[in-house]
Amino acid sequence: MATTDKEDLPPPPPKWVQTKTAVVVKEFPDDYAIQLGGALLASSSGPSGRGTSQQKEYAEFQGWYGERLNAVTARFPDRPGPYAHILRYMTMSAVCVRRDVEVETFQRSMGATSFPDRQVGNVDSWAAFDQAAAQGEKLDPNNAYFPLMRAVGLFDAKRDAEAVATVLRAERKTDFEDYCQEESKVVWDLYLAYLHKIGKEEEARWFGRLDATNRQVRALLLTRDPYTLIAESRRSLPSLWTLDMLLLVNLSAMLLLCMAASVCMRFSGGEKALPIVVVVLALVGLLVVLFMKWAEALTQMRLLLGNLTQTSFSDSGSMSDAFNVSGVVRQYPWVVHIGEVLLSLLMPTLTLLGIGVGSLVRREKFAGALSRGLRHGGRILTILLTVAYAVALIATARAEARAGAVLDGVTHNAVTYLQQHAEPSRTP
Hints:
By secondary structure, this protein is mainly α. It is built from 18 helices and 2 strands. It is elongated, with a radius of gyration of 33 Å.
């Protein structure tokens, strides 16, 4: 059995100040992106656990985030970004709204709760949080982010009247920027500087070209509407798949009824037995449809695609949306299942009802009318359903091909595809 010596164990990870990346940060003291990227990257190596008390939570934030970010604000006092990062990281542990009584009362309409309210922050964390929010709002006066975050600290401190007034003041702002994208950008810039520092020029050029492409895409997204690229697929594909399934289930049920009529007529007394066979087949079909879940799956897919494209769930008026369901399914998902059952057995049910009404009008025995109706009218309806199913499959295949072309185009060259196909963004 092999033994593991201490020499075989990997060395412990170096401290941030000992890394080459930290050396790069020291060499560019006046570069905002590198300094902020260094502060954020160094903070990411902090402990994942949270403090056991309010004071320790704030002390932990200061040790791993606050001190480094405050150093950046001191070096670049006219930049609002570091204050936004301070606020965001403080809400991870040092300042947070914990109004569990109010939440449970609102959600369940109950006055009592087993989750007591608690204040996450303390006097020091509230003061630091409020100061960062106030300074950020001073540097970026039209940005609603800073007063909204300031309200979080006020709510945590149970200064509700001031918090509400702050939210109302944020409503009058014209912009909203949380500076989250800045975090990834400055870390990326720091990484490029690090590659140059260690002499990896080829890798730096490759990442530089990738960064330039990403910037082009982001710039195009500000002037063009990217969701039009997949909006048609988002609307049509789930609807076409739903239509395919409805036609297939109806066609299968009609085929079974027509086959049952043909088989029964081959035997003596089969015409009298046909109504019983039809009832049995109808009950079996109903049980099968009750346990089917394809409509729920397709509806969830449609909701997911709608959220991804940030468009309305039912904003289309095209024929492909004939089987689109409204947003009520989010609150009442059983509506989808009921619709699935009713539409899946629509054509067989209408056929049997039509035969029954015809037999009453002509005063004919139902067994005879059922046999003749299924062997003649039922066959015609089955043929029509088969043709409709074939046409729907062709339309689905074409829609899938278009969606695949969109994905391929975006994957190979997003900049070119956006330039050629995306529509100019519409200002609200």
